[in-house]
Request: fold
Amino acid sequence: MEFGEIAHKEQIKDGWRRSNKNDAGCQIMHSYSGQHTIQMTLLNIVSLRRRGANLSPDVRQHLASPRRAVTVPVVSRRILQGRRDDVSNVLDSSKVSGVSLRSICLELIRYSRHNLPIERQLPEHHAILQSLRLELLTQLEIPLVAFQESNLYDIHRARCTGALHFRHQGSRNDWVQVQAGSGEIYGALRWRLPGKLMALFKIRDFTCENAVRRVAAVRMLSAVNSGFPSDIDGLVLVQMREDAREFKIVDIVRIHSLAYLIPKGEQHSLVNSRIDLRMFNEAYSGIGIRGGGEPGWECVF
Reply:
């Protein structure tokens, strides 16, 4: 059985921390089942109140009191963290990320032409691009509205270490879902395609010292059979790309969430859309939550 890190934290890790580490399994189950029972009870009480049921005064007072649960975070936008101090320009980022300098320069030029206003487009001479100032980061926090909630957020933390090791082990470059269109052009994947993070960085606007562009370098996959699920396992099959569109630079608001892939051979993978109820509904019921907003230059102080 496979489940996400968020569910693992809520169901296992938090209960382990609360236990006395003596027969922890029973304590973890008791802790989580207690929380679940309380949440279901509160949902039932709220439902009864909406239907006009006669509730006791203490229950009505409890429902009218300020929320006790975690509410909307102060910052609900995507956040880049983990700045690397040994990278200051495009040439340095190429050495750390493991992506060729030529690929980065060509994609920066394409990104600049398609996403930046003419007065702020990047220089297209490779020698100048190599010295373009940027900050390389290793983590992207992506807030997603929790399933069946309107004021609670789950935080997906996408890691990207390039060619460097992560916590004294192998490098870590997470799979993410990238907005690659609109509507349902990729079948069950809707308007997203999986891709592997290769770099996270802030490009400083050379025409305005106090403005940056937050972008991600992603190695994209393509959907097999137009993104329609297989009749055998009900999952979407994706494959590696070998064309010029394989490596892309996108604004981080195009990164929708983490992606969960099941390898199937050397070139193919299955998109695990059953990792949680939110992803299941997005893939099979047409219930999608778009996030992020429109990209743009941001002032930094």
Residues 68-75, 287-301 have pLDDT under 50 and may be disordered.
